[in-house]
Amino acid sequence: MRSVIHRIFDAPSAGDAAIIAAKTAVIYLFLIAGLRVLGKRELGQMSLYDLVMIIVLGNAVQNAMINNDNTLGGGVVAAGVLLLLNRAFNAVALRSSRFAQLMVGEPVLIVSKMRTQGITPEQVQAALREHGFEDLHDVHLATLEVDGTISVVPRRAEVLKTKRHYRGLRLP
To answer: What are the CA-CA distances from residue 147 to residues 41, 45, 105, 138, 144 (Å)?
Structure first.
């Protein structure tokens, strides 16, 4: 019984855990940069090919992060590093609008910049149909939002001004 429990809760040595943590951090930073470079479309409009790429990518980086360490402890170290890095990125983004803009980006008018954002005319037409429009001439503007979704404003829409939303309050 003790042998079974030992095998379940087996952990890497402190040195091996540090190597797993360092590799995991490098992989996380690489993937954040890579996904940022690929553009917003990859986030909001995932095709079957994108899903397969993400699954295969997850398997590929898993091997790079923990190598041959199949212990529960090695997995916990890698998962912990990923969670901590994600929390750190979110905290920095909340405090620094410049960092948030660098990491998240800004909405983009897609009618004139479809190709540079990786969006096909068919995807724009699908977004128009989702919003109830049959023709691009009925649309004032279409915007690729930072989360990868497409917003559509009708040509006859009333322009409303809204207050700016703040994520947090900065005090001196």
So the answer is: 8, 9, 9, 24, 8
Q: Do both 73 and 113 map to the same domain?
A: no
**Is this prediction's pTM over 0.90?**
no
Q: Can you give the pLDDT of all 172 residues of the chain as single tens digits?
A: 678 887 777 888 889 899 999 999 999 998 888 877 765 554 555 666 677 777 888 888 888 888 788 888 888 999 999 999 999 988 998 999 898 888 877 777 776 555 556 677 787 788 888 888 887 777 877 887 777 778 888 877 665 555 554 444 444 4
Q: Which domain holds residue 50?
A: 2-104
Backbone φ and ψ for 12, nearest 5 degrees, come out as -75, 165
Are both 44 and 86 inside the same structural domain? Answer: yes
